[in-house]
Amino acid sequence: MTPRPARGRLRLAVAALALAAAASSLGAGCAVVPQNRRKRLADPMMQLETDALDAYRRQKLYSTREGAAGGDGAPAGGGCGCQ
Amino acid sequence: MSAPAAVTLLTLLLPLGPTATAAPAAAAPPDYQIEAVRFRFTRFDQAGLGYQSAAGPSGAAGSQQLTVEEPQVEIIARAGDRLTERIWLPVDVVTAASPDHSRYGKPYDAPLDAVTQASRVNTAGSFDSLSTYRWNRVTDVSFHVAFHIEEPLQSWAMGIGWRRSFAEENTALALSLNQVLDWFDRFDLDGNRHGRAARSTSNLNLALSQVLSPTTIADLSYGGTWQTGTLGNTWSSVLLSDGTRGDERLPRQRLRHALAVRVAQWLPWEGALKLRYRAYVDGWGIRAHTGEADLVQRLFGIVQLRASYRRHTQTQARFFTISADPTGTELRTADSDLGAFVAQTVGGAVSIDLARGGAGAKAVFWRDLHVDIGYERYFRSDHLTIDVTTWGLGFRF
C-alpha cells in the first residue's frame, strides 16, 4: 500500500478534533451525579476496564502483531513482540 | 505449562479461600485476606505469510504459522483496609517463534530449522506484582514490579502510579510511569550468536475519567513511550532485490504517542455498549486509527452475552521494503507488522456469574463464581489470520 501523507495528516487532524470534542464533553459533563444515582455505572457490565487477564490476552495479540500497538497503558517491549 | 498442569495449580490455590472466609466477623478488617483467584487459558492459532520470515520459497514471503498456549493465574489479596496486592503469573508456550534464515531456499515442506531452540517450542513466563495503597479517601498510590524470562530474553519492569478522584468520585485523574529493561541474545541470520543486546522502554500514562450521566461514563487517556537500544529481535530478514535475504536494520530509538477515548453507555434492556477510539503516531512514520465496539447483554440475571468488533488501520514504517538494495546501508525492514494493513477482529463470548454471598448462604467458601468462554478471529488485509479461543474461571471470597 502506498502511503498518502496528505490524507494521513487530514485523518490525524480529524482524529485530534474528535478527541478535543470528546475532551470538551468530559469537561462539560462535570455536573455531579450523586452516588445513589450511580447504580448502573457500578454494574460490572459497565466497567471500562475488563477483567485484567482478558485484557492481557487481547493486548498480547495486538502488541505482538501490530507495529502501532503499545505506547499506552502497558509499556511496549519485551516478550516475543519485539517492536 | 499445559492446561491440566495449570488447573492443578489452581486446585492447589483454592484451599486458600476457606482460610480467608473463616476470619471472625469484626469491625476491623483481617490482617490478610485472599479476595479473588482467577484463571484464564487462551490459545492463539496464527496462519499467513510475512516478508520478514525466511520459512518459504525463494524470493517470496515466508510462513508465519505458529500457535501460542497461554495459561494465566491471578491472585488478589487485601492486607488490612488500605493495601491491596495483585500477583499475576502469565505463561506463553510458543511454537515456531523464530523460523530460521537457513531454511531459505530449501523445499517448502522441509522440516523446520531453527535460529534458536525457541523455534520449536519456547516457554516464556512472567511474575508480576502490583501493590495499591489507599493513601486517603480519594487518593491511591501503586507500585509495580515484574520479571519476564524466555530462552533468549530476560526482562525487568517497574512502575509507580497515582490516582485521585474528585467531585464525589465523578472524576478521576491517574498518572503512571513505567520502565522496562530487556536483555537478550543477539543472533545473525544463520543462527550464530554474537553476544547480548539490550533495549530500554520508558512509558508515561495520563488518564482522565468522568461520569457524564447516571448511565454514561467516559475516559480520555494519553500514553507516551520512549524506546532506545536494539529494537528488533535480530533474526528477522529482509528480501533483497537480487532475490537473496539480508538482515533487518532498525533505528535505535523510537518515540510513540497514543491518545484514546472510551465511552460506556448503559442500555435500558439490561445491556451495555462500549466504544473506543485510539489514534497513534510514532517516530518511525507509522500512523494508526483503531475503533472498537463491545455490545453486552445480560440474560436471566446471571448470563452475559458479548459481541465485539475492532477495526485497525496503520501506515507503514518509512523504511519498510520488500525489495531492498543488496549494497545499501540504509535502514530497512520487511516485518509485516510494520507494514501498512487493515486488521479486523470479530468475536463473541458467553459468561456466567453466580453469587453465593447472601445472608442465608450455606457454608460455601466462595462468594462469587465466574465462568466464561469466548472466540475471536483476527484477520488482516495482508492475509494474516489468528483464531483465538479463551476460557476463564474466577472465584471471589
Structure, described:
The complex is a heterodimer of chains A (83) and B (397). Chain A is mainly α and 83 residues long. The longest helix of chain A has 24 residues, at 5-28. Helix content of chain A is 51%, strand content 0%. Chain A has three helices and no strands. Chain A starts with a helix and ends in an 18-residue tail after the last helix. Chain B has one domain: Porin (Beta Barrel). Chain B is 4% helix and 60% strand. Chain B has two helices and 20 strands. Chain B starts with a helix and ends with a strand.
Question: End-to-end distance of chain B, in Å?
Answer: 26 Å
Strand content of chain A: under 5%
Helix content of chain A: 40-55%
Low-confidence stretches of chain B: 1-24, 110-118
Structure described in brief:
Chain A is mostly helical and 83 residues long. Chain A contains three helices and no strands.
List strands and helices in order, with pairings.
The complex is a heterodimer of chains A (83) and B (397).
Chain A: H1 5-28, H2 39-42, H3 52-65
Chain B: H1 3-13, H2 16-21, E1 33-47, E2 49-50, E3 62-63, E4 66-79, E5 83-95, E6 121-136, E7 139-150, E8 153-166, E9 171-187, E10 193-213, E11 216-229, E12 237-239, E13 245-247, E14 253-267, E15 271-282, E16 287-299, E17 303-314, E18 341-355, E19 368-380, E20 385-396
Antiparallel strand pairs in B: 1-4, 1-20, 2-3, 4-5, 5-6, 6-7, 7-8, 8-9, 9-10, 10-11, 11-14, 12-13, 14-15, 15-16, 16-17, 17-18, 18-19, 19-20
